[in-house]
Specification:
- By secondary structure, the protein is α/β, with parallel strands linked by helices.
- The chain has helices at 16-27, 42-51, 73-77, 99-118, 159-177, 205-212, 229-241, 260-270, 285-292, 299-303, 314-320, 327-340; strands at 7-10, 31-36, 60-64, 82-85, 123-127, 143-144, 183-189, 191-193, 219-220, 223-224, 226-228, 249-252, 258-259, 282-283, 310-311.
- The strands form five sheets. The protein has a seven-stranded parallel beta sheet with strand order 3-2-1-4-5-7-12, sandwiched between helices.
- β2 (31-36), α2 and β3 form a beta-alpha-beta unit.
Length: 346
């Protein structure tokens, strides 16, 4: 495929999802520009991408830009046909001030959209999350689709979930009010696992790492819908070029939710001696609920104990022609990459 005359900006080039997107775009012949907060990171990011199999690295360029500042964004979007806005603050732990997460996500998204609109960008694909869809609803027996939005004051909604929801809503409001001539697509991945980029463990891959290195004492009685990061990347690119994707949201999930204890089974079955520290027991619900009273990080977990969230990615499969690999492959590939990179104890 020859797309050398089309230029794509991918924000947050040092990130997990963004890195996989960049690798795939370069494979497909696009000119790619990416943002980092400091150009001092360029050599490190290039090395990480090279390790991940990057080809045609001469088609990749870097611009310094930060979501909290206007500087650099005009240069970043100049001459771009598409923008894939992947960068967003990620806080795995509870935060005292929710605005520390919400404001940079929402204002950063608007900053990118305004710059893209001024530059005449055709389409922006925004990385939102299942956190903007399937949280705060309680234990409703339903299948979540793109028509759903998370309930911000509902059970299990943390600052990160609020940030993704509010940033995405702000993006759609901007398009309706000011974005004439520019198309928006939003992507809503569930728990993202898969091959590690560099030596950083991101997102739901922490579950795999903590399982392998023995820090997970046992598994709570909960289920996770999972998607492979490589399939998240391909979904973004399909959403970028598919005419029918304009103005749409897309849930991306590989299939039914997996019990956390079954993640341990997968690791022990496929990774041999490297998985000797993976726990085999389930933590009783009452213990998780008790600890969650004192540990705010566990409150979203406690809210979902024993409840299987059902997610439909039929729309992505139908409109985009997206065909993800099974969730199990994402778990195994994550563990294998951590072992190869010596990111877990031997």
């Amino acid at each position: 495929m020859n797309n050398t005359r089309e230029r794509v900006l991918v924000t947050g080039g040092s990130g997990f999802i963004a890195g996989h997107i960049i690798v795939q775009l370069l494979e497909q012949g696009y000119q790619v520009r990416t943002t980092v907060r400091s150009l001092r990171k360029e050599s490190t990011v290039r090395a990480v991408l090279a390790d991940a199999g990057m080809v045609n690295d001469s088609a990749l360029s870097f611009v310094a830009a930060d979501l909290t500042n206007d500087a650099g964004w005009s240069e970043a979007v100049e001459g771009c046909d598409y923008v894939l806005h992947v960068a967003s603050p990620v806080h795995l732990r509870n935060v005292r001030n929710e605005d520390d997460v919400i404001v940079p996500a929402r204002e950063g998204t608007l900053r990118v959209l305004r710059a893209a609109h001024r530059a005449g960008v055709r389409r922006v694909v925004l990385t939102s999350a299942f956190h903007a869809v399937g949280f705060g609803h309680g234990r409703a027996d339903r299948t979540f689709t793109e028509d759903d939005w998370s309930v911000l004051n509902g059970p299990g909604v943390d600052a990160y979930g609020k940030s993704k929801t509010l940033a995405e809503r702000a993006a759609w409001d901007f398009i309706a009010a000011e974005g004439r001539g520019m198309e928006l697509v939003t992507m809503l991945p569930v728990a993202v696992m898969g091959p590690v980029m560099g030596n950083d463990i991101s997102g739901s891959n922490h579950v795999v790492q903590r399982s392998l290195d023995g820090r997970m004492p046992g598994y709570p009685n909960m289920w996770m819908p999972i998607v492979d990061v490589r399939d998240v990347a391909s979904a973004h690119i399909l959403a970028m070029i598919e005419p029918g994707a304009a103005g749409q949201r897309f849930l991306v999930s590989s299939g039914p939710s997996i019990a956390m204890k079954d993640i341990g089974v997968l690791l022990r079955t496929h990774l041999g001696d490297a998985a000797k520290r993976v726990p085999t027991r389930t933590i009783p619900d009452f213990v998780v609920r008790l600890v969650a009273r004192f540990n705010a990080d566990l409150r979203p977990v406690a809210a979902d104990l024993g409840f299987v969230k059902k997610v439909s990615s039929d729309k992505a499969r139908r409109v985009l022609g997206w065909q993800p690999r099974p969730s199990q492959e994402a778990v195994i590939a994550a563990g294998q990459s951590m072992i190869r990179k010596s990111l877990v104890k031997s």
